[in-house]
Specification:
single chain, 127 residues, alpha/beta, globular
Length: 127
Amino acid sequence: MDAAALDGKRILLLEDDTDSRESMAMLLEMAGADVVQTPTAEEALAALQRIEFDAVVTDVAMPGRSGFWLVGQIRQLTSKPSVPVLAVTGHPFPRDGMLRAGFDDQMLKPVSPDLLYETLTQLIRRA
């Protein structure tokens, strides 16, 4: 894995757990990404309406609005509905259901840094 594969890529990170969010942001920043962190789906949607992102990484199950809600809003309402959205979850949801919901891919927690880098790089390249 190229250590700078995500260099200069703007990533929106939605995670309600502060420790998990900060750890994942650190991993992405170590790969060169510019990370915008949000703890709620509403804040993530607001960021998406202000800033162009290369990809979104979102937790799925959260209090209040979920990652499912966010991906639905992205696909329907944003100016860039084709932005890649990676679901990161502790729940093993069926892959086909996640794809139908609008996610481009998913990975289970705890996240492997190499798999995170590789998956995001592939999603960004395909977008």
